[in-house]
Amino acid sequence: MALMRIVTVGEPDDEVLLKPAARVREFGPELHKLLDDMLETMREAPGVGLAAPQVGVSQRIAVIEYPEDEEDPESPKVLYEIINPEIIKKKGSEVGQEGCLSIPGLAADVERATFVVVKAQDRHGKEVRIKAYDWLARIFQHEIDHVHGVLMTDRAEQIYKLVKTKEGELEAIPLDEVPALRRVASAS
Ligand code: ZN
Fold first, then answer.
1. Which residues have a beta carbon within 5 Å of ligand 1, which is an ion?
2. pLDDT in tens, 164-174
3. From the CA of 40, how far away is ligand 1's center (Å)?
4. pLDDT per residue as tens digits for the range 78-107
5. Residue 179 scores a pLDDT above 80
6. Which residue, 79, 45, 78, 81, is CA-closest to 62?
7. 42: CA distance to ligand 1 center in Å?
8. Is residue 84 domain-resident?
9. 62 closest CA partner among 133, 2, 156, 148
10. Number of H helices, E strands in the chain
11. Do the domain assignments include residue 106?
12. Which listed residue (40, 74, 143, 169) is catalytic?
């Protein structure tokens, strides 16, 4: 396996993050290597989800790894590899604060469904259906957005800048309340 570079917004090649990705038609060794490399890259980051456009590959692929029991971070993690994913059912709605490996330093309040059914293919091309609730449902919606070129900031009700406090914790400050950015905005 090999680590891949994560493309971030503002880099010269960030266009891959902003355009819809292509449907996957080949389920061979090349796809399997990509999935393995994406998994390693996601774990190293670390993150709970990673879509192929985030590693510069414009294909409808994402990996997600999340504890089986949301309340217990020590519970075994379940890995989902989704190819050509589609949300075929959704219910409920809740606003939650998300982060994104391609938008370091920012967080966003995004309204998402609290339950989704995802139809996708596995690494061998077999059709799978996955039901996800709450935070896992949010991760699926975030990653499936990525394969359509949609970012959390496109859907955000509020964007925050993440700032490290003296205690070393991350604090989310609403973007319109960050003095340096307000100065930049008023100067332009
Ligand atoms: Zn993301």
1. 100
2. 888 989 899 99
3. 16
4. 999 999 999 999 999 999 999 999 999 999
5. no
6. 81
7. 11
8. yes
9. 148
10. 4, 9
11. no
12. 143
Distance (Å) from CA 187 to ligand 1 centroid: 30
The CATH number given to whatever domain includes residue 34 is 3.90.45.10
Residue 4 lies in a domain: no
Enter the tokens of residue 165: 């406090």
- The reported pTM is 0.91
In the reported structure, the alpha carbon of residue 140 is separated from the centroid of ligand 1 by a whole-number distance in angstroms of 10
Euclidean distance between the first and the last CA atom of the chain, given in angstroms as a whole number: 46
Cα(86)–Cα(103) distance, integer angstroms: 23
Instruction: State the total domains in the chain.
Output: 1
Domain that holds residue 87: 14-98+112-154
Confirm whether 143 is a catalytic residue: yes
| Residue 82 domain flag | yes
